[in-house]
Task: structure prediction
Amino acid sequence: MRPVYVLLNLPRDTGAKSKNFAEVYMKVNKGLVMILVTFIITAVLWLTAVPRETVGALSHFGQLLGGLALNGLFLVFLLSLRNRRLDTWFGGLDKVYVYHKYLALLSVGLIFIHGQISESLAQAAQTAEQATGPVPAAGLANLPASMGSLGQALFIVLTLVALFGKRLKYENWRIFHRLLVIPYGLGIYHSYFSSAFDLFAWTPLAIWTTVTNAIGLGVALYMLFFYQRTAYRHKGRVSKIQRLNATTVELELTLDQALDFQAGQFVFLKVFQQGLEAAPHPFSISGGQNQTLRLTIKRLGDFTAQLHDTIQVGTAVSLNGPYGQMDFAKGGSQQVWVAGGIGITPFMSYLQHLGHYGQSVQLYYTYRGEEEAVYRPVLERFAQENSQFQVVFNDSREKGRLDFAQLDLPAEAHYFMCGPGQLVKSAVKQVRTRYPQAQITFEAFDFRS
Result:
């Protein structure tokens, strides 16, 4: 599965891929400030620290890059926690994973450059020693450098597999992702035992490096050994199954205790049924209250196909969440909703609340083939009964893609968008072109679940 049946730009284990980093970057938020502050602190401490021995400018620069790489990895593991506070700071879990991806790529680049500088300096030193006489065997003295080289190679390979291994099954991908803790540990060992700076002393650099490394490694080990046991505390069972069409199924779950969620949010779901993958997958909440929860799931890949065909009433499940920042209640009195395919799901759970908030909504619901418009009858009936709700249906097979540059769109509305990444990216761009100051909240998905 790739970032999420829940409409996200998620990383691998959620089933989705980040689609619009520029859009996220434009929003200066607490998460971005946190990232910049940690990098600035790291850079300043490495630049101002006093080494144990005289080092050249190139060596100092190479160790600075190594320190920045470790800081990037600390943040990568921290963001993998799916912490709700961080979720809020970044404006949604999909945004968290955008930063997660680019921080991983940045760290790989820093590690590679650091390694090239270190290798160049080592070769120069060896050449100089050979010119003065025989060079004694290094023995264990060379172990930190060897561990650093091994960690660099492993981390580059595993990160590239994690980011670009699209053909891997989700379970196999998760194995590679978990193994990242090994090169991270090797990198930490390398930094402490090969650095020209004393990282065991009570200096600002040593304290900062130790704290960030301890947090990063602690989070990595927690995610590896304990996360799956502790995060999925909401237990329940499948109480009702409704197959809406040949590709879409709606599950009603009865939980042991009520789940506090907002319309538009999603959960990570584990299904404990023989023959079905037990790994968590993200799905939008399409309705429910108290201890009842409904999830609408489209057949888009191996897992969702098996779930659609074989799920049984009484199957045990567990949930982690809820997640998501699509808070329609705070979206103002005039809203425009854009839903692509199964991206209609988060909007469905909020329709019943429209009357409570007095909001006027225009919904553009686009899909590929009438058989995919699973909620069309419900939406038509709701539009007839509620004057503040208007819906426009678009079958892309017959009418082509929606052209948001040509639609009658209000300038002052708050726009909520959810659907495939390509659709959402295009819609955001077109609306931004017309109304640069428009408020847009979006979640996009692109996965094979």
Q: What stands out?
A: The chain has a mean pLDDT of 77. The domain at 232-323 is CATH 2.40.30.10 (Elongation Factor Tu (Ef-tu); domain 3). DSSP finds 16 helices and eleven strands in the chain.
